[in-house]
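Researcher: I'm comparing several assemblies side by side, and this is the next one on my list. It has 551 residues spread over two chains. Same procedure as the others: predict the full complex and return the structure.
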Amino acid sequence: MCGIAALQLRNPSLHPQMGSLLSSMLCQIVDRGPDSAGLAVYNTPGLVSRGMSTLSLLGKDQGMTTADITAGVAALLAGALPAGAAAAVKVVGDTTLVSAAVGTDLLVKAVSETLPGATIIGRGEHVAVMKSVGHPMEIAAEHGLEAMAGSQGLSHTRMATESAVTAGGSHPFSVADDLCLVHNGSFSNHATVRRELRREGVVFDSENDTEVGARYVASRLKQGDTLEEALVNLGKALDGFYTLVVTTADSMAVVRDPIACKPAIIAETDDYVAMASEYRALAGLPGIDNARIFEPEPGKVYTWSL
Amino acid sequence: MVTLTAPESTASTAPDARVPESSTVDLAVTSVRELNQAIHNAADGQAWTVTNPGGKHSLAVGIDADIAVTIEGHAGYYAAGMHQKGGVTITGNAGVGLAENIMSGRVHVTGDASQSAAATGHGGLVVIDGNAGARCGISMKGVDIVVGGNIGHMSAFMAQAGRLVVCGDAGDALGDSIYEARIYVKGTVASLGADCVEKPLREEHLAELAELLAAGGRTDNPADFKRYGSARNLYHFHVDNSTAY
């Protein structure tokens, strides 16, 4: 059992409330996965900036001061950074964010050389990813979710089954620019698919089954699939139980396996699309009494774009 | 060794004057446990209203008195489970496992119900005005279920007794491995499960269907339905059926 709560805000006037709304949803799914949790927030001022790539690193302590990380990354990017621009490093809760006005691949290279032991848990221009072990509401509070603005938010509370309770095994898995995936369930043939992806040159960070799903989606998107096509293909390649939520810079998708053992419920209004494992996580949303509320059909991919 | 004896009655046989005929419980300020304890202590004939359910789980479970409970809003998992007597009306949607193991009495949902509605129900009536999710009536053992909309896949899986009426469409593998129970579907059936077959709709079926539809507050014409039930080929192992298990 795991818990998922996701929110896409269509009405920009709700963006300042993204964190408080997501926090109230997360609060109701804690029981479903109290051992660890993760958050992904999109277009949150103070965490990401337009025209800059941001990497989210696991842990607040990277073994170097933020000034040393900034200097190290900036030195490696010297030729690529625009004139007068610098790298920026910020610690938010148990997460280190590194930003610079260069492409993500270049920034990944510079950060990996500066901090060889760092685990990159999020990347892109729009997304910041935060995850940790412990009570989900404490993790949310530590990262200051309540006060965060943004266009989309995704949260996950984990009850680990397929791999250890570690921050690295927490969801979301963000393995390509602005792409995040969370999972309630378990993939049974993840080892096979992991081997196939490794043969294609894909590098894995963990032994976690969900990472395989995320890397599979990233691989399909890279090959030209739309988000919907990638998730239809995932249904053919990966076997097991799943309710998945996938977010990109401007869209959100929900899919359940054809047996649909894992719950999901969606509320849609003109102002937002919200998805959660259980209705009680949606009950406090504004205008919920007039929302279109439905359970996603088994095996059907739903997508919404901003 | 423990000897169980009935507790000595300390209450007078006259109705307790302190118990009101109707009560409202606001779940914004009262816990689910307090609600369930209160309705377990309730006396026959009372009417209870539950406000602000907020999708909470296990609402109005184990009712064993002839009371009417109305839940104003959406209920979470296992609402009206183990229902024994009286009626529960949910003016909204219900989560997983609505009226699980209902024994008798009536449970009515005006919206949709999630998966496994009326699972293992032994008796009573479950009415869902909207759609029901997957596995509706799984392992039903005597309950009657009337669904105004569609039902999901694997409904009436291993059904043993009771009646399931569907005014909309049925999902895949309807009545898979069914022992007995009668299934009536007005719309389309995506596919029938192992050993579930269409059967003739005779006069006695039209009559019982009319009764069930009336009990569910429906105005559909019984003649528009088809009946499905067990081919009884899986009752005993037969090597020719080995691939059907």
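Model: For your comparison table: Helices of chain B lie at 32-40, 203-215.
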